[in-house]
Amino acid sequence: MMAVRVQAEPIDTAAALAGLEAPGAGAVASFTGLVRGDDGVSVLELEHYPGATEAALEALAVEARARWSLIAVEIIHRVGPMVPGDRVVFVGTAAAHRGAALDACAFLIDRLKTDAPFWKRELRGSDARWVEARASDDAAADRWRAG
User: Fold this and answer.
1) Contact 94, 69 (CB under 8 A)
2) pLDDT for 121-142, tens place per residue?
3) Nearest one of 128, 121, 132 to 81, comparing CA atoms
4) Which residues neighbour 66 within 8 Å (Cβ) at sequence distance 6 or greater?
5) Which candidate, 32, 61, 36, 47, places its Cα nearest to that of 118?
6) Which DSSP state fits 37?
7) C-alpha span between 72 and 108 (Å, rounded)
8) CA dist 46 to 13, 50, 91, 93, Å?
9) What does the DSSP assignment read for 5-16?
10) Of 90, 88, 78, 84, which is closest to residue 15 (Cα–Cα)?
11) What predicted TM-score, i.e. pTM, was given to this entire model?
12) Nearest of 21, 1, 19 to residue 11 by alpha carbon
């Protein structure tokens, strides 16, 4: 099973996790990213390029399945306005063994931060600014490109 969704609706992590419990799975690993309220952020707005964003996420899921023996992969990413505490991304993997599930989950979250076309804008009161890519995200993604 492989599922990739980009949506404005809140992410139901219980449903996403339940979808990963497939026959043959001995381990499920997941990551849920939350909107942070750092430095007074009141709203995070995410924009994407419809079609291209889903294709990029699907390509990452296919790559993860080729690198690890995965039974299931699920990626859900929100777009639109969100407030601190909202779930912005869910990545889940299922495999026969925990090592593959954990590594594939880390790979997917690290790579989607740099490889999927999303644009972030933070609002702090009446001030709004686009968020630049971070060197730490590039470094995390690069460790998977090397190996």
Assistant:
1) no
2) 999 988 999 988 777 777 877 7
3) 121
4) none
5) 47
6) -
7) 13
8) 19, 12, 17, 24
9) EEESSPP-HHHH
10) 90
11) 0.92
12) 19
Asked if 30 and 95 touch (Cβ cutoff 8 Å), the reply is no
Using the CB atoms, write b or e for 24-38: b if 16+ within 10 Å.
ebebbbbebbebeee
Q: Mind listing the pLDDT tens digit for each residue in 57-80? A: 999 999 999 999 999 999 999 999
CA distance 28 to 33: 17
Q: Which residue is it, tokens 């999927």?
A: 116
Kindly list the distances between the CA atom of residue 60 and the CA atoms of 3, 44, 74, 143, in Å, as whole numbers in the listed order: 12, 24, 11, 15
Q: How far apart are CA 34 and CA 81, in angstroms?
A: 13
By the 8 A CB rule, do 100 and 106 touch?
Answer: no
